[in-house]
Amino acid sequence: MQWSSSAFVLAVVFFSSHASADPVQKSEDIVKFFAGAADLGKSRGICVGSEEECKSKTKANDTPAGKSSLDMLINFGLDSAELDTTARAELTEFAKALKDSRLRTFDFVVEGYTDATGTVHYNEGLSQRRAQSVATFLTASGIETARINAIGMGEKNPRSPNPYDPVNRRVEMRIKTQ
User: Fold this and answer.
1) Which residue has the higher pLDDT, 2 or 89?
2) What is the pLDDT of residue 88?
3) What are phi and psi of 11, to 5 degrees?
4) pTM for the complete prediction?
5) Cβ proximity of 131 and 150 under 8 Å
6) CB 104 within 8 A of CB 113
Protein backbone atom coordinates (compact mmCIF):
# COMPACT_ATOMS: atom_id res chain seq x y z
CA MET A 1 0.00 0.00 0.00
CA GLN A 2 1.31 3.46 -0.82
CA TRP A 3 0.22 6.49 1.20
CA SER A 4 -0.49 9.68 -0.64
CA SER A 5 -1.90 12.94 0.64
CA SER A 6 -4.33 12.98 -2.28
CA ALA A 7 -6.00 9.89 -0.81
CA PHE A 8 -7.22 11.75 2.24
CA VAL A 9 -10.59 13.26 1.61
CA LEU A 10 -12.97 15.23 3.75
CA ALA A 11 -16.45 14.24 2.72
CA VAL A 12 -19.16 16.74 3.39
CA VAL A 13 -22.39 14.79 3.11
CA PHE A 14 -25.77 16.40 2.45
CA PHE A 15 -28.67 14.95 4.41
CA SER A 16 -32.20 16.29 4.18
CA SER A 17 -32.77 16.68 7.91
CA HIS A 18 -30.35 17.55 10.69
CA ALA A 19 -31.67 19.81 13.44
CA SER A 20 -28.55 20.54 15.47
CA ALA A 21 -26.19 23.41 14.71
CA ASP A 22 -23.37 21.85 16.73
CA PRO A 23 -20.49 20.81 14.47
CA VAL A 24 -19.75 17.09 14.26
CA GLN A 25 -16.01 17.65 13.76
CA LYS A 26 -14.00 20.18 15.75
CA SER A 27 -11.21 22.13 14.07
CA GLU A 28 -8.50 20.33 16.06
CA ASP A 29 -9.79 16.94 14.84
CA ILE A 30 -9.71 18.20 11.25
CA VAL A 31 -6.17 19.56 11.66
CA LYS A 32 -4.93 16.28 13.12
CA PHE A 33 -6.60 14.30 10.33
CA PHE A 34 -5.06 16.28 7.46
CA ALA A 35 -1.71 17.02 9.13
CA GLY A 36 -1.29 13.31 9.88
CA ALA A 37 -2.26 12.40 6.34
CA ALA A 38 0.31 14.73 4.84
CA ASP A 39 3.18 13.34 6.92
CA LEU A 40 2.70 9.62 6.30
CA GLY A 41 4.90 9.03 3.29
CA LYS A 42 5.19 5.50 1.87
CA SER A 43 4.16 2.47 3.87
CA ARG A 44 4.40 -1.27 3.39
CA GLY A 45 2.30 -3.95 4.97
CA ILE A 46 1.37 -7.58 4.78
CA CYS A 47 -2.04 -9.12 5.25
CA VAL A 48 -2.67 -12.72 6.27
CA GLY A 49 -6.11 -13.92 5.20
CA SER A 50 -8.31 -14.32 2.16
CA GLU A 51 -8.18 -11.76 -0.64
CA GLU A 52 -11.56 -10.32 0.49
CA GLU A 53 -10.42 -10.05 4.12
CA CYS A 54 -7.24 -8.25 3.09
CA LYS A 55 -9.12 -5.83 0.83
CA SER A 56 -11.49 -4.90 3.66
CA LYS A 57 -8.60 -4.50 6.12
CA THR A 58 -6.80 -2.21 3.66
CA LYS A 59 -9.89 -0.04 3.28
CA ALA A 60 -10.34 0.14 7.05
CA ASN A 61 -6.75 1.31 7.49
CA ASP A 62 -6.53 3.95 4.75
CA THR A 63 -5.80 6.72 7.27
CA PRO A 64 -4.22 7.03 10.70
CA ALA A 65 -7.71 7.12 12.20
CA GLY A 66 -8.72 3.99 10.27
CA LYS A 67 -11.02 5.92 7.94
CA SER A 68 -10.57 6.97 4.33
CA SER A 69 -12.56 10.15 4.83
CA LEU A 70 -13.59 12.57 7.52
CA ASP A 71 -17.36 13.01 7.38
CA MET A 72 -19.14 16.21 8.33
CA LEU A 73 -22.90 16.66 8.20
CA ILE A 74 -23.86 19.51 5.88
CA ASN A 75 -27.46 20.19 4.94
CA PHE A 76 -28.64 21.42 1.54
CA GLY A 77 -32.22 21.44 0.48
CA LEU A 78 -33.12 19.35 -2.56
CA ASP A 79 -31.84 21.04 -5.74
CA SER A 80 -30.09 23.70 -3.66
CA ALA A 81 -26.60 24.99 -2.97
CA GLU A 82 -27.68 27.12 0.02
CA LEU A 83 -25.82 26.48 3.28
CA ASP A 84 -28.03 26.10 6.34
CA THR A 85 -27.10 26.80 9.98
CA THR A 86 -25.58 23.37 10.53
CA ALA A 87 -23.53 23.60 7.34
CA ARG A 88 -22.20 26.99 8.42
CA ALA A 89 -21.21 25.61 11.84
CA GLU A 90 -19.37 22.69 10.21
CA LEU A 91 -17.60 24.92 7.71
CA THR A 92 -16.65 27.42 10.43
CA GLU A 93 -14.74 24.59 12.12
CA PHE A 94 -13.13 23.64 8.80
CA ALA A 95 -12.08 27.27 8.22
CA LYS A 96 -10.53 27.37 11.72
CA ALA A 97 -8.59 24.22 10.84
CA LEU A 98 -7.30 25.72 7.59
CA LYS A 99 -6.02 28.75 9.53
CA ASP A 100 -4.01 26.51 11.87
CA SER A 101 -0.25 26.70 11.30
CA ARG A 102 -0.09 22.95 10.64
CA LEU A 103 -2.35 23.30 7.57
CA ARG A 104 -1.48 26.81 6.32
CA THR A 105 0.79 25.49 3.59
CA PHE A 106 -1.84 23.19 2.07
CA ASP A 107 -4.24 24.04 -0.73
CA PHE A 108 -7.55 22.19 -0.98
CA VAL A 109 -9.81 20.96 -3.76
CA VAL A 110 -13.54 21.22 -3.06
CA GLU A 111 -15.43 18.71 -5.23
CA GLY A 112 -19.21 19.00 -5.45
CA TYR A 113 -21.38 15.98 -6.28
CA THR A 114 -25.05 15.23 -6.92
CA ASP A 115 -27.24 12.18 -7.05
CA ALA A 116 -28.64 11.02 -10.41
CA THR A 117 -31.81 13.12 -10.16
CA GLY A 118 -31.85 15.52 -13.12
CA THR A 119 -29.91 15.57 -16.36
CA VAL A 120 -26.17 15.06 -16.49
CA HIS A 121 -25.69 18.66 -17.69
CA TYR A 122 -27.89 20.08 -14.92
CA ASN A 123 -26.15 17.98 -12.25
CA GLU A 124 -22.74 19.22 -13.38
CA GLY A 125 -23.92 22.81 -12.84
CA LEU A 126 -25.55 22.03 -9.48
CA SER A 127 -22.45 20.24 -8.24
CA GLN A 128 -20.32 23.24 -9.26
CA ARG A 129 -22.70 25.59 -7.38
CA ARG A 130 -22.45 23.42 -4.26
CA ALA A 131 -18.66 23.34 -4.41
CA GLN A 132 -18.57 27.09 -5.05
CA SER A 133 -20.95 27.73 -2.14
CA VAL A 134 -18.55 25.96 0.21
CA ALA A 135 -15.51 27.74 -1.30
CA THR A 136 -17.24 31.13 -0.99
CA PHE A 137 -18.05 30.48 2.66
CA LEU A 138 -14.44 29.50 3.37
CA THR A 139 -13.00 32.58 1.64
CA ALA A 140 -15.51 34.80 3.47
CA SER A 141 -14.18 33.19 6.66
CA GLY A 142 -10.65 34.39 5.90
CA ILE A 143 -9.20 31.56 3.83
CA GLU A 144 -7.21 32.81 0.84
CA THR A 145 -9.02 32.25 -2.45
CA ALA A 146 -5.88 30.74 -4.00
CA ARG A 147 -5.96 27.90 -1.43
CA ILE A 148 -9.42 26.65 -2.49
CA ASN A 149 -10.27 25.17 -5.91
CA ALA A 150 -13.99 24.41 -6.41
CA ILE A 151 -14.87 21.73 -8.98
CA GLY A 152 -18.27 20.32 -9.92
CA MET A 153 -18.17 16.57 -10.49
CA GLY A 154 -21.86 15.99 -11.18
CA GLU A 155 -23.06 12.49 -10.38
CA LYS A 156 -19.63 10.83 -10.83
CA ASN A 157 -18.20 8.60 -8.10
CA PRO A 158 -21.36 7.96 -6.07
CA ARG A 159 -20.87 6.95 -2.44
CA SER A 160 -23.91 4.67 -2.59
CA PRO A 161 -24.61 2.07 -5.29
CA ASN A 162 -28.12 3.56 -5.54
CA PRO A 163 -27.52 6.56 -7.84
CA TYR A 164 -30.55 8.39 -6.36
CA ASP A 165 -29.48 8.01 -2.73
CA PRO A 166 -29.26 11.44 -0.99
CA VAL A 167 -25.85 10.43 0.43
CA ASN A 168 -24.48 10.97 -3.08
CA ARG A 169 -25.30 14.71 -2.79
CA ARG A 170 -22.12 15.88 -1.13
CA VAL A 171 -18.96 17.94 -1.23
CA GLU A 172 -15.57 16.31 -0.67
CA MET A 173 -12.49 18.29 0.25
CA ARG A 174 -8.97 16.97 -0.15
CA ILE A 175 -5.44 18.26 -0.03
CA LYS A 176 -4.47 19.48 -3.49
CA THR A 177 -1.42 17.74 -4.88
CA GLN A 178 0.82 19.28 -7.52
Assistant:
1) 89
2) 87
3) -100, 125
4) 0.71
5) yes
6) no
